[in-house]
Specification:
This protein is α+β, with helices and mostly antiparallel strands. Among the domains are: about 55 residues, no CATH class; about 100 residues, Uridine Diphospho-n-acetylenolpyruvylglucosamine Reductase, domain 2. About 35% of the residues lie in helices and about 15% in strands. The strands form 6 sheets. Strands 15-17-16-21-22-20-23 form a 7-stranded antiparallel β-sheet. It is globular, with a radius of gyration of 25 Å. GO terms for molecular function: D-arabinono-1,4-lactone oxidase activity; FAD binding. InterPro entries: ALO_C, FAD-bd_PCMH, FAD-bd_PCMH-like_sf, FAD-bd_PCMH_sub1, FAD-bd_PCMH_sub2, FAD_lactone_oxidase-like.
């Protein structure tokens, strides 16, 4: 039975009543229970399972949660209004690409396979469903020679080449309708949910890791090693490799394991801790296929400032060699702390009323707030890894900061983390993410207003997070395990915007920790200020270091960086989310140092920043005129030096590998040339989903042809 055929009864009709603004947790829960019990058909009953699991974290709810997922998924299958976009869920046929010849793998597996879709061209959709386009062709490639031959073919055909892995970038860093798409892993592994690892019999030379003794006559010191990692290697594969060898580990990384090294390095991703930088700063060597289909190598430190993090503009990266650490042990003590004590507000900060009530309810004193401030600074100064989460309207934050120590002979048998615990292990985390994805694509979910959605999500998220309150319960695991403490992230799509804010120095030369506190509380205040609750997943903060990479948002931040982000569900209204991003951007880009100079805050390249304004400027104008004014000049010069030294040209390279966004920002002359020749890449759609109405699409196609005949003035 379709949901549309069922009556909407009275309790749901006032679900967006403005009188609900600023509800406190007890009121939110009471209001939610009324909605659940008011439905005579029990369609909201799976939420009761979530509430029970949240209130009894010591109990095993695996079977009940699995059943709740099954109920929701069955509902989604039977009701069209519940279904998410299915564009990327059509299984393609893998075919040999006869136009190009490349030697197969030793086992006979083809080097190149073209994906053929039942209805012609595939519609590319990124993981966050913010970018859609139809590539000219889509290929799975398993060898370096296969990449070379495809690039040569694309050059003959006048096509651009872009690579996509798990498609996690929310910004427009992908290809377009004039480009061909390359993938280094099976389509289903990269696109389908829930995530499944590549099949056991999957063979490729574009995944894997190997220790190398030196790079360009540079040898690592006793505390480091060089590892050549193929671009199609996932974080989970490298994590498993580190666990197997127990000799080296990457010093920092992104949390999720469902991402390739090619995908995380290209947009200059980062980890956590003041001792960290960006993944691109670890690069000792880049191997890529250039515009003429030849393998090139960059290992000169000066050239690497541009080549290590350049968004795929140089060519198709097939391998990177990273400088990694000797294996270390993480002493994890993740803990749930009252939110006002986790990162205390600066003195005199205008705290939201709901938080004042929390302080009053818990009898928190000024002395406790001061002790908490000192504890926060101690964590920042002493801990290796630094991360804080707050889920909307929750009374507690989850604090995940930990120390690192040297590995000893007694540490050779430490277990993998998070392990197989029924409540907090890998399978439990994967199930929780699958449940979140199913619920947010569930029609009854829309019956809850934004605040209730955020409250339920936050309550559920806190259930599966560990809470270590005794020293003897400290979690001992390898650094390579601790960095990926959360699994199954791939199974839950979300929207995400992150800013990198420089931390200025105080008069005595210390870091300005009060500014860190202010940025955190400006995020919390923004979330409480909106009755529509556009941020329904989390506020997250990591504290990181600086960077030497030319286009890194952390570059020049000598005292460190506040990496702070907000996340929401894909069912949030796009206009509400965009206006909220503007609200937090206004706050996070307004800070100054003690001399009144505006701090050079910059967003994470791969996350959501399009359409924002910064200090009265469109964000792209802010990039070119303020944030990256000098960096873009440096990058252009170094980029040109790299390609010309290897017999190419910037123009030829961008014709083959350019991306509309980066060309528009960094190479505006090339972007204008592309536009004149008709090879400019289509911008992302304004709405998160394309029309599926065949009449609309038919007339849209006719209109495009008319415009092509008579010009854009039609």
């Amino acid at each position: 039975m379709s949901l549309s055929s069922l009556p909407e009864y009275a309790p749901f009709k006032d679900r967006n009543d403005e009188s609900q603004t600023g509800l406190h947790n007890d009121e939110l829960k009471s209001s939610l229970l009324k909605l659940i019990h008011a439905d005579p058909l029990g369609r909201l009953n799976p939420l009761l399972t979530l509430l029970d699991a949240a209130e009894h974290p010591e109990d095993d709810f695996t079977d009940a949660l699995t059943q709740a997922v099954a109920v929701i998924q069955k509902f989604n299958e039977n009701d069209p209004s519940s279904r998410p976009d299915k564009t990327v869920d059509v299984e393609p046929e893998l075919c040999l690409f006869g136009t190009v010849s490349a030697k197969p793998l030793p086992g006979g597996e083809p080097a190149i396979q073209e994906l053929k879709f039942p209805k012609g061209k595939a519609t590319f959709a990124n993981w966050g469903h913010t970018i859609y386009y139809e590539p000219e062709a889509t290929f799975v490639v398993r060898t370096i020679e296969g990449v070379c031959e495809l690039v040569k073919w694309a050059a003959r055909e006048g096509k651009k080449v872009r690579v996509a892995g798990f498609r996690h970038s929310w910004s427009e860093l992908f290809g377009g309708p004039d480009s061909v798409l390359l993938m280094f892993l099976p389509y289903s592994t990269l696109v389908k949910l829930p995530y499944k690892s590549p099949p056991a019999d999957w063979k490729t030379e574009l995944s894997g890791a190997t220790l190398v003794p030196s790079v360009a006559d540079r040898r690592p010191d006793a505390e480091h090693a060089f590892v050549r990692i193929m671009a199609g290697t996932t974080n989970d594969q490298f994590r498993a490799w580190c666990y197997q060898h127990k000799t080296v580990c990457i010093p920092f990384n992104v949390i999720m394991v469902e991402i390739t090294f090619g995908g995380s390095n290209a947009p200059i991703c980062h980890g956590s801790g003041f001792g960290s930088s960006t993944l691109s700063d670890l690069v000792e060597q880049v191997e890529y296929v250039d515009a003429r289909g030849n393998v090139q190598v960059v290992n000169d430190p000066r050239e690497l400032r541009a080549a290590s993090g350049c968004f795929g503009l140089l060519g198709v990266v097939v391998a990177i060699t990273l400088r990694v650490d000797k294996m270390g042990v993480a002493e994890m003590v993740p803990v749930k702390i009252p939110m006002v004590l986790a990162v205390p507000p600066p003195k005199g900060y205008p705290i939201p009323d709901a938080v004042k009530d929390m302080i009053k309810k818990d009898n928190i004193t000024e002395d406790q707030l001061e002790a908490a401030r000192l504890q926060f600074i101690r964590r920042c100064k002493e801990d290796y890894y630094l991360e804080w989460f707050w889920f909307p309207y929750q009374a507690h934050c989850w604090v995940n900061t930990w120390k690192k120590r040297a590995m000893t002979d007694q540490d050779l048998d430490l277990p993998e983390y998070p392990g197989s615990n029924l409540l907090t292990g890998v399978k439990a985390q994967q199930l929780e993410s699958s449940l979140a994805e199913a619920i947010t694509n569930w029609a009854p979910w829309s019956w809850l207003d934004g605040q209730k959605q955020a409250y339920v999500f936050g309550l559920s998220a806190m259930v599966g997070l560990p809470n270590v309150t005794k020293p003897e319960d400290t979690i001992q695991t390898y650094v390579s395990e601790a960095l990926h403490f959360r699994r199954g992230i791939q199974n839950f799509r979300c929207w995400d915007s992150e800013w990198e804010i420089p931390i200025p120095a105080t008069a005595d030369g210390d870091r300005d920790y009060e500014l860190v506190q202010r940025a955190w509380w400006d995020g919390i205040s923004a979330m409480y200020s909106r009755k529509d609750a556009p941020a329904r997943v989390a506020l997250e903060m990591r504290l990181t270091g600086s960077s030497n990479v030319l286009l890194a948002p952390q570059r020049g931040n000598a005292n460190g960086t506040i990496s702070i982000e907000v996340l929401t569900t894909l069912t949030t209204k796009q206009e509400d989310w965009q206006s909220f991003l503007q609200l937090v951007a206004d706050k996070w880009t307004s800070y100054t140092d003690r001399d009144g100079n505006r701090l050079n805050a910059r967003p994470h390249w791969a996350k959501q920043w399009a359409g924002l304004m910064v200090d009265g400027l469109p964000v792209e104008k802010y990039f070119t005129d303020v944030a990256y004014k000098d960096a873009f000049v440096e990058f252009r010069a170094e980029f040109d030096a790299v390609v010309t030294k290897r017999g190419g040209s910037t123009e030829e390279t961008l014709r083959r590998f350019g991306n509309s966004t980066m060309e528009r920002l960094i190479f505006p002359m090339q972007a204008r040339l592309d536009k004149q020749t008709g090879s400019d890449v289509k911008k992302p759609y304004a709405e998160p989903h394309r029309s599926r109405n065949p009449i609309v699409r038919l007339f849209g196609g006719i209109w495009k042809k008319i415009k092509g005949l008579f010009g854009s003035s039609v």
